[in-house]
Amino acid sequence: MEQLRNYINGELTEPVSKTYLDNYEPATGEVYSQIPDSDERDVLLAFNAAKNAFESWSKTSLESRMMILMKVADGIEKRMDEFVAAESKDNGKPQKLARAVDIPRAVSNFRFYASALQHFASESHQMPGVGINYTLRQPIGVVGCISPWNLPLYLFSWKIAPALATGNCVVAKPSEITPYTAYLLSQVCIEAGFPKGVLNIVHGLGNKVGQAIVEHEGIKAISFTGGTETGKRIASVAAPMFKKLSLELGGKNPTIIFADCDFEEIVKQVVSSSFSNQGEICLCGSRIFIEKFIYEKFKEAFVAQVKTLKVGDPNNDDSNMGAIVSFQHKQKILSYIKLAEEEGGAILTGGNEVKLDGRCANGYFIEPTVIDGLDYKCRTNQEEIFGPVVTLTPFENEEDILMMANSVKYGLSATIWTNDLKRAHRVAEKVEAGIVWINSWLVRDLRTPFGGVKASGVGREGGWEAMRFFTEAKNVFIKS
Ligand code: NAD
Known about the structure:
7-stranded mixed β-sheet; 23 strands; binds nicotinamide-adenine-dinucleotide
């Protein structure tokens, strides 16, 4: 069986423990590769390699840094089919989604930050007759990047690329549930002639490898994307060490539909924003609020459309939804569906596991599930499920919807469907979220700030925000 390797000091290495963890294909339920069960000893090796590389990498010319990051992007693109197949196999997502979104976006992340580094500028502040201040934006040193399983390479590269572009060296950990494309990335880095030690990828469990990265006193900044509880744990370790922290955490996003929306157009779009990637996108809208005048009409049209979705083998192009990422996560989602019923919800469609024939007979599949009749305060409507489960709730007016939308502890994104421009602005301003889409969903411009409020996180990624996060600002004053 194939054994993946860590990428430390420019080489593919065995974990110090020489032990491995099983890696499952969620569509079949079978183990298909093994990943290093690394620990703090591997993190230490990675840190030492990164520290040694820092002196040279931080002084590498901007153009050379740009060229090597571009080479990595080209390297991924050249092996597109392999990356697409690997991401789908590891995560369970349909191949067509990995081809349309995940892997092209990883390529764009490297290209975007490779070009950004050539345009990144710092400020100067003149004091007439007194002098001038200029701000140096210096790389931090060795930084840690920790990412989740839902958009594996997409989110991994979203952190690594700006960290490297700004001259830092990186110790990175992909999710142990979806390690494969990070392993392919380490091969691409070697092919591209990436300098040794600048990027190090350590595979393994969160409470061993992740924890060791967060606890290492030489790793000065942590960029983390994952669950809110993990984020809390990371903050409790990193904050007293005064590390810079960027935390992109969970969500329970509202989709807000006013009666004056373009009804025919939105039904399909709301199906996408609910069930893309099996609902396992942090930006999916899991609480759908509909103005009461069109509640019944929307419910009928939406449920009819959801029923047309095909749950199937991720390798088949006609599958709209693939497998849930793991057995444990599938069980968690099913337990929430049960909870919704106990809380008085009516299942309008879905609610069950899907049993497929053939190679996917033992895979982890769940029907797209739509529930109504629940109070907005119940657990189903307050806790993150992170699967193909949405609730429908009617609302009376703007005040009512804002109260319900903002009632959760999370505040990642919100989607508003209306043709009333003034109302769109009003609601966008008042909804508690870091990202708001009006009459669209998941349109991404990599220059914009990305992140959440409340329990959805601290800090912003994207554009200059990430470049600023990965640099320390030092103000220098010169008397005139
Ligand atoms: P998770 O928190 O379980 O794991 C994320 C990463 O953290 C993994 O690499 C894991 O190994 C590591 N980790 C676990 N324990 C750790 C510890 N004690 N110290 C350091 N690292 C540790 O999250 P997940 O289940 O992989 O991902 C799903 C979650 O991610 C959902 O809550 C989802 O909303 C969130 N998410 C948020 C965003 C965003 O941009 N806000 C994007 C994608 C996913």
